[in-house]
Model the fold of this input.
Amino acid sequence: MEELFAKPEIRKPENIVYKKTDLMVDRPLSYCPGCGHGTVHRMLMEVLEEMDIQGNTIGVSPVGCSVLAYDFLNIDMLGAAHGRAPALATAIKRLWPYRFVFTYQGDGDLAAIGTAETIHACNRGENITIIFINNGIYGMTGGQMAPTTLPGMRTSTSPYGRDVQTMGHPLKITELIAHLPGVEYVTRQSVHTPVNARRTKKAIRKAFEIQKEKKGVGFIEVVSNCNSGWKMTPVQANKWMEENMFPFYPLGDIKVDGKLVEKKETVS
Amino acid sequence: MAKIIGDILINTERCKGCEVCVAACPFTVIAMSKEVNSKGYHFAMKVNAECTGCTNCAIVCPDGVITVYRAKVTTE
Amino acid sequence: MGELRLMKGNEAVAEAAIRAGCDGYFGYPITPQSEVMEYLMAEKPFERTGMVVLQAESEVASINMLYGAAGTGKKVMTSSSSPGISLMQEGISYMAGSELPAVIVNVVRGGPGLGTIQPSQADYFQAVKGGGHGDYKLIVLAPASVQEMCDHVKLGFDLAFKYRNPVMILSDGAVGQMMEKVELFDQIARRTDAEVISQCPWAATGKPKDREHIIITSLDLDPAGQERVNLKLQAKYKKIQENEILFEEIQCEDAEYLYVAFGLSARICQKATDLARAKGIRVGLFRPITLFPFPAPQIASVGNRVKGILVVEMNAGQMIEDVKLSVGCNVKIEHYGRFGGIIPSPEEVVRALEQKIIGG
Done:
């Protein structure tokens, strides 16, 4: 099909201001349309490219939707057992202290089955970066309730909504982790708009810089969508996320330079 | 007089039709095609020449299918 | 002659790990093997050789630390005892599936459940038949002395790296706790990172520009691909079976009867063999040292010459299944076992031979 409104006169390599980084493997992502994983993957790889550390980085992928992250990120990687990525990363970093080591984990992986590994790796102050994608649901297995599922939120295992009396409360693990002494930097971001995606990239960069300075854990939560699990279009899901996820999981820095960020009183 | 113009190149075969780029464009340059690609997705396409090369669409595209060009051109 | 020391089995494991050039130990305390990490922490191998020692938050974390480190080509070890090894099974399965080398020491205690802290051999099936999910094998070594606790660590690392496969040292609470004279082997230098990178081209060590990125995983969503993985593993296990069998025959040349026993039970049977011979019973002892690969043809060649075989184990009858599969049906094979942390005496093992095989 013919391309309309093309401006061939400026389509020259020297005029490229944005293209997918070569650190992403050139293959279609396995994620659903509009899923935030792809954007976070790309922000992460852009950081590695800018820091020129592709060859000096070892990544650990989780079990969940991003189990195949290693197929898309063009770096050496290990696929962890469900929830255990921080244990793998701990040992890798201890034995390769000058390598950059990160885990990439979803909310089921990090905040349910892997809670112990997450908390203890953070509490030991391992010099690793943890990237935590929170979409409030188990995406890969078909939309079951996650530790982060909002009160009242419908999932396939909470079909009438999450009843906190019987199903427990959503776990704000990021706030919990921020209180641990081994943790240097904690932030919560999103990638659903250009400005948010740019902030996420900046946060990832900061976490990798912290690793270089051996200051402890850099922890980045990215509140993301799950169009399939939430049963919405991608654009609807992003709107629902702003209206429902962000009030419960507010964006912004939680801990910077090893100090908790003072919460500004918000008027609702 | 010099003017900044931009252009985007969309890898329509890799586009999954999520429409996140449509919402991100400040100049309503992008809309979804009526046709579908080989995977059956309505793909993103340009509907006017207003692109300034701001890169917003490319940054939020989860599948990284958009390449952005920007250049300063001199006009009479 | 190497340095001689009087040591506990668990301490010998720890010292052997340092001397074998181990890069990292990750563990969690559990009786009766806690001396392994205690020895390491006191010995400070991080100062001696640069070896990392880390007390993890659980056995689940330990084995996954091992998985991560082994995936980068490092020489790593963990140790635990039965309930802890059960917790590790998922990680061990992942390591077998990803073909990663490591040494896992199980100082077995009585079970099931929390069981007891006394010695047992009830984890034979778990060690030899897989333990976790999926079709996989560990190379399983069964030390019967403190000397072998030491030597099997070095042998274990050699086999683990030769075949890219986890190795389990299946010991027990008695061999772990008892003190004996050990001749220690000389220090083997830890490999430099450059050596790890060049010797382990399969490992995820950081991707240079001129090679494809390396992925350590046991996942293949394509069933045909996963079948290929399994076929490759099975071919490897066959090669191990053909090449790595270790065993010991004691007084088997003229034997009319045979004890088959591994680890601590073999030590007891060795004494029982002497006692029985003093009574005029010509009995020999066959001791498998590798439990996988199991010395099936070697047991068959001795076993088919004798009138009867008594398999002595500190369990309800596990290795006896492999002995029966090895030896023809015309030879009488019985089991004698004590469980739950009870160690049989040589005298009762002689009596069992008399009652179950000779008189039976």
Observations:
- The longest helix of chain C spans residues 223-243.
- Residues 108 and 172 of chain C are 4 Å apart (CA to CA).
- The two ends of chain C are 48 Å apart (CA to CA).
- The domain at 3-194 of chain C is CATH 3.40.50.970 (Rossmann fold).
